[in-house]
Amino acid sequence: MNWAGLYTVLSGVNRHSTAIGRIWLSVIFIFRIMVLVVAAESVWGDEKSAFTCNTQQPGCNSVCYDHFFPISHIRLWALQLILVTTPALLVAMHVAYQQHQEKKLLVLTGHADAKHMEEVKKHKMRISGSLWWTYVCSVVFRLLFEAVFMYIFYMLYPGYQMVRLVKCEAYPCPNTVDCFISRPTEKTVFTVFMLVTSSICIVLNMAELVYLVVRACARRGQHNSNPSSGKGSFYGHKLSSEYKQNEINQLLTEQDGSLKDMLRRNPGLQEKGDRCSAC
Amino acid sequence: MDWGALHTILGGVNKHSTSIGKIWLTVLFIFRIMILVVAAERVWGDEQDDFICNTLQPGCKNVCYDHFFPISHIRLWALQLIFVSTPALLVAMHVAYRRHEKKRQFRKGDQKCEYKDIEEIRRQRFRIEGSLWWTYTSSIFFRLIFEAVFMYAFYFMYDGFRMPRLMKCSAWPCPNTVDCFVSRPTEKTVFTIFMIAVSSICILLNVAELCYLLTKFFLRRSKKAGNPKHHPNHENKEETKQNEMNELISDSCQNTVIGFSS
User: Fold this and answer.
1) Is the link from the previous residue into A158 a cis peptide, with omega within 30 of 0?
2) Phi/psi at A180 (nearest 5 deg)?
3) Radius of gyration of chain A (CA)
4) Domains, chain B, ranges and CATH?
5) Interchain proximity B82–A181, CB inside 8 Å
6) How far is CA B171 from CA B31, B61, B66, B67, in A?
7) Which of A192, A249, A253, B191 is the most buried (most CB within 10 A)?
8) Contact (CB, 8 A) for A276 and B104
9) Which family does the UniProt entry place this protein in (chain A) (predicted)?
């Protein structure tokens, strides 16, 4: 399991994201993960071996390195990227659950053939109802993790700049000892770069949050002015038994808009006047 | 997530590029990314370990290395390649958006929609015209800008693209002036010149592509101006199809689409 594995996992989520979500995912993978792997890791590769202190006292080098670099930048960024990308899996789980419900419904209505099952897997879910809440939570968590890690970075390495020289007096170093860091300028450049991309991702997440909220309010306004677009009982009269009808009604109230779209496309249950699942 | 993944992502964009764009992408992957990975990274691999200064003063080597090499060539090239290849994603996003719109039309059961199924929409290649033309041209423009900026950054940092054998360093804590020796300077010079040359070729290809797109745009516009029957609100579908076919036949450009059946 490496970055490529994570990419595979998250590409699936991409389908059910908003446009801003997809841009965010591209920025994460190309400008953060890829830069980390192909460039930053080699800059920090020799951070300990090339950390030189002006002393021959054994142990002083190690102690001073540990004192000034409790966690390496590279590891912090790796943790940050993993934590920031994983809330998307909440959405993936919810989508999988909804798809499972739709398949159950198809079995109940007697449309459980391979073609319809494939369609359930392929069609894109609308971000509405409970999926909307899950999606919004995932965006909020992303924002939270980004902010927390930016703050940790600032706490550990104030000013984000890598200095050339640090003065160390931890035991067993005799007195104050000069210690020199390897490639400080290059490290500063990459720190600033990663910081900038992190800020861009924060801005994208905020924009996505605003977009989702505005869309939800707009949809609610439309719904209030058009009460006939209700859920549930419209399909009821097409089905044979009351038991089936009750089950279906229950599932429909849970499924909200996405299932309507799927049933609309089903030639056996045509419904006019509904909108396509565009996000 | 590495160069291979970038290749996968950009491979999809290739379908909607012009011929020059496809050549550019090939040059990028074979002569720049591949050379970087299989050769250049090894040459620069021991750049700091084998950077030797004529002093026993601890810290002097680190400071002198940092002074003469603020950013390593390898990292600069890696960043340049990432930045130069990403504008193509704008085109990919635009194409994905158009496909999405066509799928929406298809699903609505729109009469104007000519596709037989969703698979055909997915496979279709879009012509570079209209808003896609503007997106494509902007992406080429950004590529050119990024290439130029990085070439300038290179020149600014490493005066003249040549790697000297010896550098004289007097930064603290080095006592007085100290001789520092760079590892593999000739090999590094060779690769630097190679990468600069390929970068220039890519710039030329981008300029050529831009000229080609502009020429095509003006030709198409003059054809439309000289052929007033070719109106978008044409009511007769068959005539529109025939006009399109005629245009396609007379337009001897390489990137025509397989859109209409006779």
Assistant:
1) no
2) -110, 135
3) 27
4) 18-47+75-106+127-166+186-223 (1.20.1440.80)
5) no
6) 38, 10, 10, 8
7) B191
8) yes
9) Belongs to the connexin family. Beta-type (group I) subfamily.
Tell me how far apart the alpha carbons of residues A38 and B7 are, in angstroms, rounded to a whole number. 14
Amino acid at B22: K
Cα–Cα distance for residue pair A99/A106, rounded to 1 Å: 11
Return per-residue pLDDT of chain B as tens, 262 residues: 678 888 887 877 778 888 888 889 888 988 899 889 888 888 888 888 889 899 988 899 999 999 999 999 999 999 999 999 989 888 888 888 888 888 888 777 765 555 566 666 666 777 777 888 899 999 999 999 999 999 999 888 887 788 888 899 998 889 889 999 998 888 899 899 999 999 999 999 999 999 999 998 888 888 887 776 545 554 556 676 677 677 666 655 444 443 333 3
Hey, is the C-beta of A38 within 8 angstroms of any chain B C-beta?
A: yes
CA distance A107 to A97: 16
A29, A30, A278 member nearest B104 (Cβ): A278
Q: What is this model's ipTM?
A: 0.70
* Domains of chain A from N-terminus onward: 3-45+73-161+183-219 (1.20.1440.80)
Q: How far is CA B165 from CA A69, B27, B45, B178, B185, in A?
A: 33, 31, 17, 14, 6
Tokens encoding A88: 């998307």
3-state secondary structure chain A: CCHHHHHHHHHHHHCCCCHHHHHHHHHHHHHHHHHHHHHHHHHCCCCCCCCEECCCCCCHHHHHHHHHCCCCHHHHHHHHHHHHHCCHHHHHHHHHHHHHHHHHHHHHHCCCCHHHHHHHHHCCCCCCCHHHHHHHHHHHHHHHHHHHHHHHHHHHCHHHCCCCEEEECCCCCCCCEEEECCCHHHHHHHHHHHHHHHHHHHHHHHHHHHHHHHHHHHHHHHHHHCCCCCCCHHHHHHCCCHHHHHHHHHHHHHHCHHHHHHHHHCCCCCCCCCCCCCC
With a CB-CB cutoff of 8 Å, which residues 181-210 of chain A face chain B? 181-186, 189-190, 193
User: Is the Cβ pair B58, A52 closer than 8 Å?
Assistant: yes
Residue B141 corresponds to which tokens in the numbers above?
């423009």
Return the closest-CA partner of residue A126 out of A87, A96, A95, A105: A95
Alpha carbon of residue B27 to chain centroid = 10
Q: Does the distance separating the beta carbons of A4 and B5 come in below 8 Å?
A: yes
Closest by Cβ to B107, choosing from A186, A190, A265: A265
Q: Which one-letter DSSP state was computed for residue A124?
A: P
Instruction: Read off the tokens for A29.
Output: 């993978």
Alpha-carbon torsion, ordered B143, B149, B154, B159, to 10 deg: 140
